[in-house]
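To whoever is on call:

I kicked off a structure prediction for a single chain this morning and the downstream step that reads the tokens threw a length-mismatch warning. I double-checked the sequence; it's 159 residues and nothing unusual in it as far as I can see. Pasting both halves so you can look.
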Amino acid sequence: MKKQAAGIIVWRPAAPEPQVLLAHFGGPYWKNKDKGAWTVFKGLAEPEDRDLLATALREFTEETGLPAPGRKALVYLGKFDSATKENHLWALRREDFPTEIHANTFRMEWPPHSGKIQSFPEIDKVQWFTFPEAERKIIPSLRKAIVKLRELIENKNRD
């Protein structure tokens, strides 16, 4: 059975076109990577977690250091599978959002086989991107979520 993950995609209506906020993975492996090295605010659900939206809200706070939005502000986008996870994602329209965040850290041996344990941020930066840019930057398993959000926004604007 695949692991369950949940998260939030932040977007804003901007001129000349809407933008999505992506988070760059922290740590030495991702340091010099760009294409396919960005994600959204998400994390793994604990085995006892029944409410995946609660998981998404918890992860949002852990990864940004900001209070979680209210449940009514979120729109469920769906489930997006990767090789190892089922990612349940919600969209949040937020016109203002700090680009300096205070993410949780993780510890790992670095450099490898050195015996030295170092701490790294889970996310080292966030940045606004147009939807075409975001589709190129985000990890491949979440690309469909960006496309789905873009379609929802475009369809809503037509109504």
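Update from on-call: the warning came from a stale cache, not from the record. Cleared it. Sanity check on the structure: The chain is about 25% helix and 35% strand.
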